[in-house]
Amino acid sequence: MESTTTSLKRSTSNKLFETAKTYFPGGVNSPVRAFKSVDGSPIFIKKGDGCHIWDEDGNKFIDFCCSWGPLILGHNHPKVYSGIVAALQNGASFGAPTVLENELAELILSRNPFIDKIRFVSSGTEAVMSALRLARGFTGKKKVLKFEGCYHGHVDSMLVKAGSGLATFGTSSSAGVPEEYANETLVVPLNDLDALKACFEKYSDELACAIIEPIPANNGLLLQESTFLQELRDLCTENGVLLFFDEVISGFRVGFNGAAEMLGITPDIITYGKIIGGGLPVGAYGARAEIMAHVSPDGPVYQAGTLSGNPVAMAAGIAQLTECAQPGFYEDQRERTLYFVDQINTHASSKGYNFELVTVGSIFWLSFDGKKRIRKASQIDPKMDGFRLLFNELLNRGVYLGPSGYEVGFISQAHTKEHLDVAAKAMCEALDAVFA
Ligand SMILES: *Cc1c(COP(=O)(O)O)cnc(C)c1O
User: Which end of the chain is more exposed for a tag (fewer CB within 10 A), N or C?
Assistant: First the structure.
C-alpha cells in the first residue's frame, strides 16, 4: 500500500487550524476532529445542506460523518430549520418548563414500550453519567460492569479498560481518573459468555448495572450474537443487576426505538443522545416508573441542568423525530444503505480485496479484516493503514468520512440513490487505489 498525498486545496483549513491550535488543546474541542489518525490537518466546514458539506476552501463533499450520527435527516433539513427558528423567536432559554419538553417526551414515550419516564439532559455523556448514578442509587450497589470496546462518553467510571491478565477490575484509560474509581468498574470482552458468567458469579452482589452498547458502534461495528445479549439480560434478571442499554448511537438510528426493539430485548435503563436533538445538544435517560421515581425531585438521586430541556434543542428534536416516526422511514433508510453497501462489497469481493463494509440499519463500518466477522475489540487490526489511505483517496474524490477507522459512517434521508451511486463509484475507485 502506497501513501498518497491529497490534491485538495486545503490552505484555508490549514491556516485556520494553525490559529485554532493557539486557542484549543490540539486545535479542537473534541479530540477525534484533529485528524490524528488520518494524516494532515482537519478540514474546516463552512456549511452543510442535504447530504453535502462545503469546507472553507470551497471543496464540496458527500458527507457520511453526519456530525457523528445526529443528522439522520441530513444537513439543514427544512423542518428542523423552521422548528429551530420558530422556537428561537420566543427566546433561547428560560430555565423553566416549556410545552416543547412535553411534546418531545410525548413523541418518544407514546411509541416506546421500554421506558415510562424520561429526563432530558444536554449530551450523551451527561445521560450516561446520570443514569449510572441512578442505577447505583436504585440498587444501592456500587460496581458497574462494562464491555471492552464500548464507548459511553467521557464519564470518569467509563474511561476504564480491562486490567492485565484475567483481572476483571478496570484500570483507567485516561489520566485524571483515580484508580479507586476505575476499580469500581469491571470490564469484560464483548460476546464472551464465559467471561461474563465468571464476572457475574464473582461480583453480582456488588453490581448495580451492566452497561452495554447493544449495537457497539464506536470502536468498529461489533455486532453481537443475539444469544449473548439474551444471556446478559437473563444474568441481570437472575442477579438483581440492572441492564443498561446505552443507545446514544443506536437509538432512533436502527429503528425508532433503537436496538432494544430491533433485538427484542428489554433493558432496565436506556440512554439516548445524538439523533434525539436534531443536531442540537440533547441527551436523555429513561426507565420504568419505579426506577425513575428515584430521580430528584421525586427521589434521592440528584441530577440537574441549567440548559436541560432547552426549548430550541427540544424543537429541533421534535422536528427530527416527527420525520423518523413516519411509516416506512427506517425501511427506506435500510434499503438505500444496502443499495450502497452491496455495490461496494460486490466490487471488493470481485477484486479479492481484504475489505468489507459491515452494516446494520443505516450504519456502515469499513472493515479491513475482510469477511472475518469481528465481534470483539481485540480482533480489530490496530494499524489502520488501509483506512488512512482510503480516507485520503476519498477526500480527493469528494467523499467525507469521520476521520478515524474505528468510527462508523451514517446514511441520512438526504442521501438519495443518485448521491449513493456517486459515492459508491468513488469508494470503488479509492479501494482500487489503496489495494493497487
Ligand atoms: C456518542 C456516544 C456517547 C457520548 O455522547 P456525547 O454526546 O458525545 O457526550 C455515549 N455513548 C454512546 C454509545 C455514544 O455513541
Answer: C
| Residue nearest (by alpha carbon) to ligand 1 atom 15 | 249
Q: How remote is the CA of residue 402 from the centroid of ligand 1, in Å? A: 15
For residue 70, report the distance from its CA to the centre of ligand 1, in Å: 10
* Rounded Cα gap, residues 87 and 215, in angstroms: 34
All cell numbers assigned to 138: 436504585
Pairing label, strands 409-410, 363-367 = antiparallel
Catalytic residues: 151, 246, 274
Residue 309 Cβ contacting ligand 1 at under 6 Å: no
CA of 317 to the centre of ligand 1 (A): 16
Pocket test for ligand 1, best of 152, 271, 308 (most atoms within 8 A of CB): 152
pLDDT digits (tens, 9 = 90+) for 69-91: 999 999 999 999 999 999 999 99
Query: Can you say how many angstroms the Cα of residue 416 is from the centroid of all Cα atoms in its chain?
Result: 23
Q: What is the CA radius of gyration of the chain?
A: 22
Euclidean distance between CA atoms 182 and 309, whole angstroms? 31
**Rounded to whole angstroms, how far apart are CA atoms 21 and 103?**
41
For residue 64, how many other CB atoms are within 10 A of its CB?
21
d(CA 300, CA 164): 37
User: What's the pTM value of the predicted model, to 2 decimals?
Assistant: 0.97
Beta bridge partners of 366: 357
The cell numbers describing 415, all together, are: 442521501
Pocket of ligand 1 contains residue 127 by CB under 6 Å: no
Residue with cell 483515580: 178
Q: Which CATH architecture has domain 78-324?
A: 3-Layer(aba) Sandwich (3.40)
Mind listing the pLDDT tens digit for each residue in 203-238? 999 999 999 999 999 999 999 998 999 999 999 999
- What is the third-level CATH fold of 11-64+328-435? Aspartate Aminotransferase, domain 1 (3.90.1150)
